[in-house]
Specification:
The complex is a heterodimer of chains A (about 250) and B (about 350). Chain A is of the alpha+beta class and about 250 residues long. Chain A folds into two domains: about 50-140, Nucleic acid-binding proteins (OB fold (Dihydrolipoamide Acetyltransferase, E2P)); about 145-245, Beta Barrel (OB fold (Dihydrolipoamide Acetyltransferase, E2P)). Chain A contains four helices and twelve strands, in the order H-E-E-E-E-E-E-E-H-E-H-H-E-E-E-E. Chain A has a five-stranded mixed β-barrel. Chain A has a five-stranded mixed β-barrel with strand order 8-9-10-12-11. Chain A starts with 14 loop residues before the first helix and ends with a strand. Chain B has about 350 residues and is an alpha+beta fold. Chain B has helices at about 10-40, 45-75, 80, 85-105, 115-120, 140-155, 160-165, 170-175, 180-190, 200-230; strands at about 235, 240-245, 255-260, 260-270, 270-275, 290-295, 295-300, 305, 325-330, 330-340, 350. Chain B folds into two domains: about 10-230, no CATH class; about 235-350, Rieske [2Fe-2S] iron-sulphur domain (Rieske Iron-sulfur Protein), CATH 2.102.10.10. Classes of the chains: A alpha+beta (about 250), B alpha+beta (about 350). Chains A and B meet through helix 1 and helix 4 of A and helix 1, helix 2, helix 3, helix 4 and helix 10 of B.
């Protein structure tokens, strides 16, 4: 019956209680370290990707708005790169850049890249300059229809997946992907191989039109049937049929 | 206890308590961020803070929910209970960081008001029976988090004794039981959210284990209370009920007994036995588990004081608890079912003259 009594507004805890409390604190520290380390270690690894946030580069090339908003850039040695174009935040090609299909332009923007996929965020409207009409060489767009395929995978927004968000998939990211698709960012289908490799293939509509997709399908598993097309190093799927898996 | 209101009445133990709390939080956040970066060097800072704050908050919520029953089962856990409200306010701040960052990262800078988007981004999936298929996995998880945050806010905002006094202890206490609703919302938020994205079985296993720890401790504490009440039922005579023997109460100590359908606190002080209400006016703490300190009954939860003779707090405090007449027959303590007039003097029963 001589157990110590705790009164919180006194300056000192009775010694025996203090020792017990110290033991609890020590146990809590061990639990905190153990659980947070375990939870962190069991997370799905984040895929690589890069968004040069706050860094601006100058890009020059021909704008093509459909079926995907692209900048076709030809280097001095003749190599062609197709940059996907998006606006700031959760928006697609910004208004200041629209209506310039087939024109040679220059602008500043931030690079987004994942593996061989490259994208530019147009975030400096004042830098956007139309330099004139594109030459025949610059306009020539060689497209290679690789094969007809049926792909099943998660519907992603390409801006987040190519490097803005890491991670950029799954239920937790779903609302963001919905906003991005709703804002005009090109959709992609995330496909994985048996070795764990993954890539997001941008989706387009047929007849050189953008693909109209229900934004609420974002982060859900879809099946897309269509033609796989390679152009300027950019692989895309011209979708003939798109369905939502249950 | 205090007569006037101050933001926090700091003392050494409170500073120590808050220091340890901050230290454990930093330890948890640091460990989580460090291990995450080792595993995924590409993870963004926003993601690390978002996940770190949620995991820290979830651990803290479990601790908060466990402290109550642990203190009921073993009084040595009472030092954790005294400043539990600091844990609640910290939990709200962690939840706020998590919610603000998630709202900005996932919903802002788009074509919809972010606060609207939180609830409507994929509104069709509120229908779990869509197209004849039952699929709750796609159900929006964000509203559960928003409701939990709202509850945490209300609890944190009203955590000060100013609100306790002005709202009244019963209402305040009932309102703060909302933490259990918030816990349910957090479980649903996690189950419909991150558990649908992460593949490791560790996440659902730990969530279920946490639930069983919390509910198991509550059931154990409830069982202890139930057994106490059941064993206290006894004979009644002339409006008095036989309770326990004098030998069961050491000088300066208390004991909880069951009289007339309610718990009564008995105290032995300077060769006399006193009986008072077992419910502290502050937060309803079990007064009978307290002690006599400096001549006053002292509640074990937050140290509120009452004089054993009249149930009044010593001046300048104004709280009063009910008192009861006692009788000692042989070695047995008998307690009146009827209360004395509130604040009236009752000198208790002398042990040596019995």
């Amino acid at each position: 019956m001589n157990d110590p009594f705790y009164i919180g507004y006194l300056d000192k805890n009775p010694p025996t209680l203090a020792r017990h409390t110290q033991g609890i604190v020590l146990l809590l520290a061990v639990i905190v370290i153990g659980l947070t380390a375990l939870l962190a270690a069991r997370q799905t690894p984040v895929e690589p990707g890069d968004f040069e946030f706050g860094v601006r580069r100058t890009f020059t090339g021909v704008i093509l708005e459909s079926p995907l908003p692209l900048l076709r850039s030809v280097s001095t040695n003749g190599a062609v790169t197709h940059y996907l174009l998006v606006g700031s935040g959760k928006y697609g090609l910004p208004a200041f850049a629209r209506g310039n299909t087939g024109k040679l332009v220059r602008f500043d923007g931030s690079l987004i890249q994942k593996g061989g996929s490259v994208m530019v965020e147009l975030n400096a409207p004042e830098s956007f300059k139309v330099l004139g009409p594109a030459t025949e060489v610059e306009l020539t767009q060689k497209q290679e229809r690789i094969t007809d395929v049926v792909l099943t995978g998660e519907l992603v927004d390409t801006k987040c997946y190519f490097g803005v968000m890491r991670p950029a998939t799954g239920k937790v990211h779903r609302a963001c992907a919905v906003r991005c698709l709703s804002g005009g960012i090109p959709p992609g289908i995330l496909v994985r191989d048996h070795d764990g490799g993954a890539m997001a293939v941008p989706l387009t509509g047929s007849n050189n039109q953008p693909l109209k997709v229900d934004p609420e399908w974002a982060a859900r598993i879809v099946t897309a049937k269509g033609h796989l097309i390679l152009s300027g190093g950019l692989l895309r799927l011209e979708v003939l049929e798109l369905s939502l898996d249950r | 206890m205090s007569e006037s209101y101050r933001a926090i009445d700091w003392n050494r133990q409170k500073r120590l308590y808050d220091g340890i709390l901050v230290g454990l939080l930093l330890l948890g956040l640091g460990t989580f961020i460090g291990v995450s970066l080792l595993r995924s060097p590409n993870a963004t800072a926003e993601t690390l803070i978002l996940r770190g704050s949620s995991i820290s908050g979830l651990l803290l919520l479990h601790l908060i929910l466990c402290i109550g029953p642990l203190a009921r089962l073993d009084s040595r856990f009472l030092p954790l209970l005294y400043n539990r409200r600091h844990l609640g306010v910290t939990l709200f701040l962690l939840a706020l960081v998590h919610a603000a960052l998630a709202t900005f990262q996932f919903h802002a800078l788009g074509d919809e008001n972010p606060l609207v988007s939180v609830f409507t981004a994929y509104r069709r999936d509120y229908r779990v029976f869509a197209d004849g298929v039952f699929n709750p996995a796609h159900f929006p998880f964000e509203p559960f988090g928003a409701l939990a945050l709202l509850i945490f806010f209300v609890m944190a905002a009203t955590s000060h004794d100013f609100w306790l006094r002005n709202l009244g202890a019963p209402f305040w206490k009932a309102m703060h039981l909302g933490v259990y609703l918030a816990y349910g919302c957090v479980l649903a938020h996690v189950a419909f959210g991150i558990l649908q994205s992460e593949r490791s079985a560790v996440y659902p296993a730990l969530l279920i284990a946490g639930f069983f720890v919390v509910s198991g401790l509550h059931l154990a504490a409830a069982r202890k209370e139930f057994l106490l009440d059941r064993n206290s039922r006894s004979a009644e005579r002339d409006g008095f009920v036989a309770t326990c023997s004098i030998d069961e109460i050491a000088d300066g100590h208390g004991k909880v007994v069951f009289v007339g359908g309610q718990r009564i606190a008995l105290f032995r002080h300077q060769d006399r036995i006193y009986a008072t209400s077992n419910v502290c006016r502050h937060q309803g703490g079990p007064i009978g588990e307290g002690r006599i300190v400096n001549g006053c009954i002292t509640c074990p939860w937050h140290g509120w004081n009452y004089q054993p003779e009249d149930g009044c707090s010593p001046p300048p405090f104004k709280e009063v608890i009910s008192t009861y007449k006692t009788r000692i027959v042989g070695n047995q303590i008998w307690v009146a079912i009827a209360t004395n007039a509130l604040g009236s003097r009752c000198d208790g029963s002398s042990i040596s003259r019995s």
